[in-house]
Amino acid sequence: MSETGLPPCPDCGSAFTYEMDALLVCPECGHEWSAQEAAAQVIRDSAGTPLADGDTVTVIKDLKLGGTSSVVKVGTKVKNIRLVDGDHDIDCKIAGVGQIGLKSQFVKKVTK
Description:
Zinc ribbon domain-containing protein YjdM; elongated; three-stranded antiparallel β-sheet; 1 helix
C-alpha cells in the first residue's frame, strides 16, 4: 500500500496510483482498474504464476531470517502454503526452521 492507502499498480508496481471516479489509475504506465479488482488481487510468484492456498513452492534465493543466524537456502521446497494479506504474503512451515512468513517474490511455484 502507498502512503494514500491505495494498492500499487498491478501492471508495473508503481506506488503512485490515484483514484479517478470509480477507477484506480497508474500515472506511470496508464493502467486503469476497478477497486473491486484491487481487493481481489492475485498473489503471484517470481515468474508471475498465480499462487493459491495449499500450493508447493521453492525458494529462489538464500533468505536470512531476521533475529537469527539461520538461512533458508535456495531450492528449499515449501509445501502447503497459506496466502495472507501483508508485506510477507505467504505463511508456511519449513522443517528445521518452523513457522515463517515469506514474500511471494522470492518463491517459484512447483508444477506437477
